[in-house]
Amino acid sequence: MTTRESNRPSFVAGFLFFLLFSGPPRFRERDPTASLRGEIDLVVIFHLAVWALAGMWVFYQMRFYFQANAKSLGLRLPQKLGLGMVAALGMSTFVSVSPPLTAFMVYQMLISLMFTMIFVERYGVEACLTKLLQASAVMCVAIVVAAFAFSDLVLVTTETGATRLQGVYIASTEVVSLFSLVLLLAGVQKISKITYGLLLGLSCTLLVASLSRTAYLAVFGIFLLVLFKRPTSKPFRRFAYIVGLAVVPLIALSSAFDLSKYRNPEGVWTLSDRLNLWAYLSHVTLQQSPWLGFGYYAGGRAYGIAYNALLASPHSIFFETFVGGGLLAITILVILCVVMTAYVAHVFLRQDTSVCFAVTILFLVTLMFGSVGSTLDSGPVAIVFWSLAACLPILRNKGLASARTAVTFRKELMEAR
Questions:
Q1: Quick one: which of 5, 43, 157, 158 has the fewest CB in 10 Å?
Q2: Contacts of 358 (CB under 8 A, 6+ apart)
Q3: Could you read off the pLDDT of 178-210 as tens digits, one per residue?
Q4: Torsion, CA 374, CA 109, CA 181, CA 342, rounded to 10
Q5: How far apart are CA 403 and CA 350, in angstroms?
Q6: 163 has which bridge partners?
Q7: Do 166 and 17 contact (CB within 8 A), yes or no?
């Protein structure tokens, strides 16, 4: 099935895309055990309403695929694997420490998967990337506004006592700023130079202010990819040059100032105690419920709190899936990531466009953030992950079609001679 890229996203589709990308925001501090007990407040009601509307939109759009002479639904291998993982996690509801919570989180993952798949099928890869840029930029602006008007929503105190702009109750600062930066460099949407410069400066400033080691490592990864590929995209090359030139001043700055007062250097080796948490969660899961886990999200939260109340969750898409859905679910997730990696390698090595280069970086960044702190049910990382699951097969198929066309043309040219 080919995408209908001539259609522009409707206001409803675009607005729902933004709401799902944003999470929506939590807006307030909440006891980590409240969700396990099923406590409901106004924010929870708002979340339920948003996801209910998204579910209705998905099922409303699916009616077109079941009409006479309708096109196929467009389930490609990543979506099939994703649905298999959703089914495996759904089975964990029956052994969950909080069945309603697990059922809702699995429902969110299903809607995220189906919504992005239908969105890309209907409106195209470029439209999806444009919406990701717009949503990321809006969240960056929201974090800045909140920093001045509602600082408690975005500022946190680090382990060393320093202040960090983490965006905790609005959106993860390092995630949305890096997504915004990558998509701006890719030029997925035409905007004025003034707006482009302001958003680029805002994204870079928030990225630095986040004090995220993962984000800094991701930027270094972008630098290495540019050196390896040397893409035709000038913005990516210029960014890589700036990063390379900034290395020496940053080393000098770290020597002149004690940067350890902002982030504890000892936490680098344990990933802020995540390694010990993962070892504990793995041991408990393998000992007590290896195949189905303890219920998606609910199990990770319950046993995460039992180990360290400050961490409160597995902080990893892989361990969240393993603890929640056992060996069955994590096996499917690993296979899904391997398949998407193969698609990314094909797109990265055989196609030289800014969109393909941006998609490669987005996948790398998503895996990095997902491995140490996010989930695949809702929020920026989840929506980008499932958007890439829908976009990558299309980009790969376009590359294969272009290659076949080129081969055919060369054969015809040789025969004509």
A1: 157
A2: 129, 182, 183, 185, 186, 188
A3: 999 999 999 999 999 999 999 999 999 999 888
A4: 90
A5: 9
A6: 157
A7: no
The residues facing 232 across adjacent strands are none
Contact between residue 214 and residue 372 where contact means Cβ atoms under 8 Å apart: yes
pLDDT of 174 higher than 90? yes
Please indicate, yes or no, whether the overall pTM of this predicted structure exceeds 0.90: yes
**Span 343-362, pLDDT tens digits:** 999 999 988 889 999 999 99
Q: Is the peptide bond before 78 cis (omega within 30 degrees of 0)?
A: no
- Kindly tell me the sign of the dihedral angle through the C-alpha atoms of 180, 184, 187, 189: positive
Cα 39 to Cα 48: distance, rounded to the nearest angstrom: 13
The string of DSSP letters for 205-249 reads HHHHHTT-HHHHHHHHHHHHHHHHH--S-HHHHHHHHHHHHHHHH
CA distances from 338 to 18, 342, 363 (A): 28, 6, 12
The single-letter code of the amino acid at 35 is S
Contact 332, 88 (CB under 8 A): yes
Residue 55 and residue 136: Cα distance in Å, rounded? 22
Q: How far is CA 205 from CA 129, 143, 191, in A?
A: 22, 12, 20
Instruction: Classify 163 as helix, strand or coil.
Output: strand
Write down the residue that tokens 């491995």 correspond to. Answer: 371
Query: Could you tell me if 301 and 312 are in contact, meaning their C-beta atoms sit under 8 angstroms apart?
Result: yes
- Report pLDDT digits (tens) over 95-145: 999 999 999 999 999 999 999 999 999 999 999 999 999 999 999 999 999
- 21: Cβ contacts below 8 Å, ≥ 6 apart: 131, 132, 135, 136, 139, 379, 380, 383
List CB contacts of 161: < 8 A, sequence separation 6 or more.
Answer: 261
Task: Give one DSSP letter per residue of 27-64, joined into a string.
Answer: -S---TTTTTTT---HHHHHHHHHHHHHHHHHHHHHGG
Residue 358: closest CA among 47, 37, 86, 130: 130
Report whether 261 contacts 287 (CB < 8 A): no
The dihedrals phi and psi of 157, each to the nearest 5 degrees, come to -100, 125
* Token pair for 379: 């929020």
Q: Which helix (H) or strand (E) holds 285?
A: helix 274-288
Instruction: Answer whether 302's CB lies under 8 Å from 98's CB.
Output: yes
pLDDT at 260 over 80: no
What are the structure tokens assigned to 26, written together? 């939590």
